[in-house]
């Protein structure tokens, strides 16, 4: 009995503790590595999302702010003053037109334009001319220019077609203008833009008022 107890192998307690501690350190190290890997994945997702967002912002910026758009020129308020009209047998007309020219600039920068003329035409012949002075339309705004022009039939070589219009009680005129200028973006980027105005107006000879106004 004594021999059996003497032959029983006893393991040192220190070795067991070291083995347990090694396992715990290994598990802790693995946990730290997993945590670091998750953090790297999270940061990678953030970076990719940020880059995608930046690309979308730059694309939207290029398609809107950095895009040169053609301004629009139109006739706005339009009134006929002092209209003198002849008869069907002796047709003629003489009137003053007070009009408002609208220059709409949809760019993210100013549009500067040179002085130009707005012509009023009857059946292809110029019957009046107004000057649109040199100016500037601010970004995303509409410049309004008031003009007054005398329109008369003195330049018409014959009045046969005018007589038929008088028979219908209306007078149809066309107005055309072309602006030459530059749009400036970001203070340094410039591009030439030449918008045109083409309007058709119908004047009622009996009421001496504008019956219709259409611009393209």
From TrEMBL:
Tell me where in this chain the Late embryogenesis abundant protein LEA-2 subgroup domain is found.
101-195
Q: Which superkingdom, per the lineage?
A: Eukaryota
- Keyword Chloroplast found: no
- Read off the InterPro entries from this record: Lea14-like_2, LEA_2
Question: Per UniProt, which keywords does this protein have?
Answer: Membrane, Transmembrane, Transmembrane helix
Its transmembrane ranges are 43-65
Q: Which Gene3D superfamilies match?
A: 2.60.40.1820
Designated name of the protein: Late embryogenesis abundant protein LEA-2 subgroup domain-containing protein
The record lists the organism as: Morella rubra (Chinese bayberry)
């Amino acid at each position: 009995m004594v021999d059996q107890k003497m032959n029983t192998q006893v393991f040192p307690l220190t070795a067991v503790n070291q083995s347990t501690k090694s396992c715990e350190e290994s598990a802790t190290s693995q946990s730290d590595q997993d945590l670091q890997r998750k953090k790297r994945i999270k940061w990678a997702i953030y970076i990719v999302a940020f880059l995608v967002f930046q690309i979308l912002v730059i694309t939207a910026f290029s398609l809107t702010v950095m895009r040169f758009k053609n301004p629009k020129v139109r006739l706005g308020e339009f009134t006929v003053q002092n209209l003198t009209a002849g008869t069907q047998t002796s047709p003629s007309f003489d009137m003053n037109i007070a009009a408002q020219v609208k220059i709409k600039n949809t760019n993210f920068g100013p549009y500067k334009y040179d002085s130009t003329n707005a012509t009023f035409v009857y059946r292809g012949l110029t019957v009046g001319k107004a000057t649109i002075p040199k100016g500037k339309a601010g970004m995303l705004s509409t410049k309004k220019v008031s003009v007054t022009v005398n329109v008369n039939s003195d330049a018409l070589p014959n009045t046969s077609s005018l007589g038929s219009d008088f028979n219908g009680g209306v007078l149809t005129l066309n107005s055309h203008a072309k602006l030459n200028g530059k749009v400036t973006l970001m203070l340094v980027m410039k591009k030439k833009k030449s918008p045109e105005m083409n309007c058709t107006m119908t004047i009622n000879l009996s009421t001496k008022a504008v019956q219709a106004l259409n611009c393209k």
